[in-house]
Structures are given as C-alpha cells and as structure tokens.
Automatic annotation (TrEMBL), chain A:
It comes from Salibacterium salarium. Residues 7-130 form the Na+/H+ antiporter MnhB subunit-related protein domain. This is Na(+)/H(+) antiporter subunit B. InterPro entries: CPA3_antiporter_subunitB, MnhB. It is a multi-pass membrane protein. It is found in: Cell membrane. One of its GO terms (cellular component) is plasma membrane. It comes from the Bacteria.
UniProtKB/TrEMBL annotation, chain B:
GO terms for biological process: ATP synthesis coupled electron transport. It is a multi-pass membrane protein. It comes from the Bacteria. This is Na+/H+ antiporter subunit D. The chain crosses the membrane at residues 6-22, 31-51, 71-95, 107-126, 132-151, 163-183, 203-227, 239-258, 270-293, 300-330, 336-357, 369-388, 408-428, 449-474. Keywords: Antiport, Cell membrane, Membrane, Transmembrane, Transmembrane helix, Transport. It is found in: Cell membrane; Membrane. NCBIfam families: PRK07691.1, PRK12663.1. GO terms for molecular function: antiporter activity; NADH dehydrogenase (ubiquinone) activity. Residues 127-418 form the NADH:quinone oxidoreductase/Mrp antiporter transmembrane domain. The keyword tRNA processing does not apply. InterPro entries: CPA3_Na-H_Antiporter_D (IPR050586), NADH_UbQ_OxRdtase (IPR003918), ND/Mrp_TM (IPR001750).
C-alpha cells in the first residue's frame, strides 16, 4: 500500500521557504554577525534535503534540473575569480575592499568584496552536499 | 609582477576547476592538462631564475603584513622543488594519457591530477604552518581519490588503509600546530623561527613538539618506523598514479622536515637531529631489506622509495652546508628518477603482462630501447658518475664526514651497493634470461610509453652533467636553510 504523505508534503511546502529565506539571511549576515557562506550553504542544502525527504529523487530533479557538480565548479571559479580580481588593481591575490552604497529601498548598505568570495563558498557547499546526497541516494 | 608567486598554485587550480565543467570530453581534458603542464614548467623556471637573481620573493596574500596574514615565500629550495615538480608531472601526465583508460579519464581523473599538483606546489611555497596543513590536505584528499579511482578490489582495500593512516597523521599535525601555537603564539614560519631562536633557555616542550612534528611528517614521508603503509598503497593504483605518488608525495613530507628542522627546531640539535639521523639510517636499512626480499618488480621499486627518504633525511640531520646541498641534490634527483623508474616498470609490466620477476624474461629481445633505458635509470639511481645520483650522494657523504657520522656513512655505502643489486636483478632476470613470451603473446606495445620515460632520463642525465650549473642554486638554498635570518629578513622585512 502506498503511504499518504500529504501532511509531510504540505508542511514541507511551507517550511521550505522559511528555511531558504533564513539561510539567505544567515549568508548575508556573515560579515558582522555569526553566519557566512559555509553555514548558509549548509542550510540551503538542508532545505533541499527536506524536499528530497518528502518527495522523491525524480521529482526533485524535475523541479531543480541542476547538475550540482557544475554548481561546485562554478562556486570554485567564483571564489578563485574574486581572488584574481585584485590583479586588475595590482594588489596582492585575495585583497579585499568595501564601500558604502545607498539603495532605493534598503538605504545605506556596506558592500564588501568578501561577499563575492562567500558566494563561491556558498555554491561549493551546496554543490558538494547535494552531490553526496544524490549519489548515495540513487540506486544503481 | 606583484602576484608572480601565486601563479604556480593558480595554474593547476584553475585548470582543475575548468576540467570539472566538462568531464566527458576526453580530448579537451587531455589538451588542457598538457597545455597547463607546459605553462607551469615555463613559469616555474622563470620564477627560479628571478629568485636566483633577486633573492627570496614573497607575496603577502590580501595585503596583510606577516606575521598577521598568510605569506607565500619563494626561497631557492621551494623554487627548485616546484620546478622539479612541474617537470616531473608533465611526462607522468603524458604516460597516463596512454595508459589510464577511457573509463577513468571520464571520471575527473585529470581534474584530480591537477588538484594534487596544486596541493604539492602550495605546500612547497607557503610560509605559514597552518596553511601548510591545508595544502597537505588538498594534496592528500586528491591522492585519496586517485588511489581509489577505478574502484578495483585491491585499490579499495589499500585506499582504506591509506586514508586511515593519513587521517590519523593529519590529526597529529593539528595537535602539533595547536601545541606550537600555545607555546609561541604564532604560526608564521619566519616568525616562529625568530621567536624560538631568540629564547635563552628553550623549554623542553619545544623538543616534544619537534618530535611530534617528526612523527607527523615521518608518517607522510615514510620514515622508519612509520613507513608501514607505503609499500601496499603505492602498488595498488595504476602506474601513472603510483608514479606521481612515488615522485611527489613522500617528498612533501621530506620537505616539511627540511623546513621545520632547519628553521624552527634548532634549539636542541643534540637530541632532535641525532634522533633524525638514527631514524634515517634505520629507514635505509629497512628499505633495502624490503627491496632485496621481494620478487615483485613493483614492490622492489616501492621499497627503493623508502631508502631514498633515509638518504635525504640523513643529509638534513647533519646540519652542515655540504649535507644540505647533498640532500637538496638528492631529493631533486630522486623526484626525477623515481618518476622515470615507475614509468619504466609500468611499461615493463604492461609489455610482460605480469609484475612477478619469475614469470618474465628476455624482454630485451623485442624491447631493446625499454631495456637500455631501464639500465640507464638504474645506474642513475645508484649514482654512477655521469648521471644525476652521483653528486647528491657525494655531497651527502662529505656532509656526513663533517658531522662525524661515520657509521651512518657506512650504512649508506652498503645500502647503495644493495640498491644496485636489487635493481640490476630486475634487469638481469626481466630483460635478459630465457624468453618467456613470444612476440605474438606480448601485450600491447611500449610505443607511446617510452617518450615520457626518455624525457625523464634526459632530465636526469642533464642534472648529472650540468651539476656544475646547478650547484649555485643548491648552494643558495642550503645557505638559506642554515641561516634562517635570510628567510626571516625577507619575510618580516626588518
């Protein structure tokens, strides 16, 4: 008999977005408070793992047709690329800088190039975690 | 120009990352790896020459001054080692293109090969102890994957042991770093050296930490009694992978002992370096016993890797200029010649279809070039004068005499003789003797396989013939190791 997962799946649909938003919050918060690319990436992948638990692998692959190995590679490229960005300014590798910008709705914000490096870390963590989980999960 | 020192790390890293994007396009993978290999050689030679001209080059990552930030230090020793690494890794890459097989190539083989080189070069260049640990892990994690890559039964079994041993030794490394940080409050190698050497009465805890680091690097570099994992792990993977392991991986452990035992832990030479010299002698003995005892060509070669570790570390333990020059010569020679011998033995096993000495014979009839190349490589390994092994051993003996270590010199001489015996036995039984296989029965040809071997043997011969030209480089590297002030001044800029 096929089990009925309606409660689990409905709750997942609600909770998923809360977890995703919280992970993005944590990710952007890393510069001044606890958080950052690693923990943010883990939390995003935990949201996707929740999706995997309540639906099955094929459904998730249909919803997110992403090759996570490519995500890892892109993350690495972003991280190394931000380090190499300093070459343009004749500064040592991995130099960073920050400045304040005023945005229409959000007001004045501090933007640092370290955030770009964190995006790389974030993508690598998501890519690696989901590659591991999908590879172990697949029957072959 | 500011960022010159990061490029030897960036080239293999970026190549590896780009190779991750298209795993199934084998031709693209091969071409890009080869181009990156050639580019790395050109760049490293350029760096070597500029260091020879201008002295030590440093790069403060992120613009943070040492000791607060991470600094990459290119002194002569590091430059010689990264140049040799790039020169050795290209022919092994070429050999793996011929032998590794489509199945493996399509599953990220070249990407992990590049990451392994990233780790090795990073470990040679870094000037920070924790960064050294990180590059060790980059190198080791790639080597875990390469050792199990393909998933045959023997690889699975041996990789399990290999990973277990290395995880434990990495944990010891972290503990050692933690102790050292608790005692000195810094992790920058130059700053550590300055702080420890300025102490009037160094605490015994520093000697304990020195021995702890000897355990860690001895496990990575296969020093007696910590060599037990090496023979089985290095015979499990395919020859191309075993060659890169034999040529590079143990050398990183040796380099770390070089660095720490000449720059950081020099406060109690009587104990630490005595210990090192005894362990080096025992490593030679145990390695040569293994090399003579085995009938399997792979095993004979693998035990010879262990012997070389003993030779180099004996040079370090003498703490004399001649000893250091000898150790540097020998480690460079050994990287090249072990790469060549692994490839030659690989070609031999492919041709003969077996790695057991009793089952092969008469190969020279159909493979004369392979046979004579093997003979030349053996002579270079033993240290016959025109080839590369000679100068290193000569200087090691000179350093040993200066330090008064006559007993260990005697062990070294006897070991050298027995190396000749263990290797020439392969030549006499495998290449001469009764022909066991008809030409029609022989597996494949050695056609493409000989080119990388010939390249490495040429490099070895050039290193022997051009020993005079190489000498100023080795001398300046030894000077920096013996006078840490040069290194400290270059890094901390006082």
């Amino acid at each position: 008999m096929k089990t009925n997962d309606v409660i689990l799946q409905t709750m997942t649909n609600v909770v998923l977005f809360i977890v995703l938003i919280f992970s993005i919050f944590i990710f952007f918060n890393g510069h001044h408070e606890p958080g950052g690319g690693f923990i943010g990436g883990l939390m995003t992948s935990s949201a996707l793992v929740l999706l995997l638990l309540s639906y099955d692998l094929e459904t998730v692959k249909k919803v997110l047709p992403i090759d996570f190995k490519i995500v890892t590679a892109i993350g690495l490229l972003v991280a190394v690329g931000t380090g190499m960005g300093s070459f343009l300014f004749d500064a040592p590798f991995l130099s960073q800088t920050y400045d304040y910008f005023t945005f229409p709705v959000l007001g004045e914000l501090e933007l640092a190039t370290a955030l770009l490096f964190d995006i790389g870390v974030y993508l690598v963590v998501i890519g690696i975690t989901l590659t591991i989980i999908q590879t172990i999960g697949e029957d072959k | 120009m500011t960022n010159l020192m990061i490029w030897p790390i960036l080239i293999p890293l970026l190549t590896g990352v780009v190779l991750l994007l298209a795993p199934k396009r084998v031709l693209f993978q091969r071409a890009l790896s080869l181009i990156a290999g050639v580019a790395l050689i050109v760049l490293n030679i350029f760096i070597l020459l500029s260091i020879h001209q201008d002295g030590i080059l440093t790069l403060e990552l992120g613009g943070w001054n040492p000791p607060f930030g991470i600094v990459l230090v290119g002194d002569m020793l590091a430059a010689l080692l990264i140049t040799t690494t790039s020169i050795v890794s290209l022919p092994i890459l070429l050999f793996s293109i011929y032998t590794i097989g489509k199945e493996r190539e399509q599953f990220y083989f070249y990407a992990f090969y590049q990451f392994l080189i990233t780790g090795v070069i990073g470990a040679f260049l870094t000037g920070d102890l924790f960064n050294l640990f990180v590059f060790f892990e980059v190198m080791l994690i790639s080597s875990y994957i390469l050792i199990v890559h393909g998933g045959t039964k023997i690889q699975l079994r041996e990789s399990f042991k290999y990973v277990l041993v290395n995880v434990i030794s990495s944990a010891f490394f972290v503990v050692g770093v933690a102790y050292l940080y608790a005692v000195t409050g810094t992790l920058n190698i130059a700053h550590l050296s300055e702080r420890i050497n300025s102490l009037d009465s160094p605490a015994p805890i520093l000697t304990v930490i020195a021995v702890l680091f000897l355990i860690v690097f001895g496990l990575k570099g296969a020093l007696f009694p910590l060599y037990f994992w090496l023979p089985a792990s290095y015979t499990a993977p395919p020859f191309a992978i075993a060659a890169i392991f034999g040529a590079l991986l143990t050398k990183v452990g040796i380099y770390s002992i070089f660095r720490t035992y000449s720059m950081i832990f020099t406060h109690d030479i009587g104990f630490t370096h005595q210990l090192l010299s005894i362990l080096a002698a025992l490593t030679m003995v145990i390695g040569i016993i293994g090399a003579i005892a085995h009938q399997d060509v792979k095993k004979i070669l693998v035990y010879n890797v262990i012997v070389a570790v003993g030779f180099v570390l004996f040079g370090v333990s003498t703490m004399t200029e001649a000893g250091f020059i000898g150790a540097i010569y020998y480690v460079l020679h050994d990287m090249v010649i072990k790469g060549a011998l692994f490839l030659l033995i690989g070609a031999m096993v492919i041709v003969a279809g077996t790695s057991h000495l009793k089952e092969m014979g008469g190969l020279i009839k159909h493979h004369p070039r392979l046979g004579w190349m093997f003979f030349t490589a053996t002579m270079a390994l033993v240290g016959v004068p025109p080839l590369s092994g000679f100068v290193g051993k000569l200087m090691l003996i000179q350093g040993g005499i200066e330090a008064g270590q006559y007993g260990i010199i005697a062990v070294m001489m006897v070991t050298s003789l027995l190396i000749l015996y263990s290797m020439i036995r392969i030549f006499l039984k495998g290449f001469y003797g009764q022909i066991k296989l008809l030409k029609a029965d022989q597996y494949g040809s050695s056609k493409g396989l000989l080119l990388p071997c010939a390249f490495l043997i040429t490099v070895s011969a050039l290193m022997g013939l051009g020993a005079e030209a190489l000498y100023p480089f080795a001398e300046s590297a030894a000077k920096t190791l013996l006078n840490p002030e040069i290194y400290i001044d270059a890094v901390l800029k006082e």
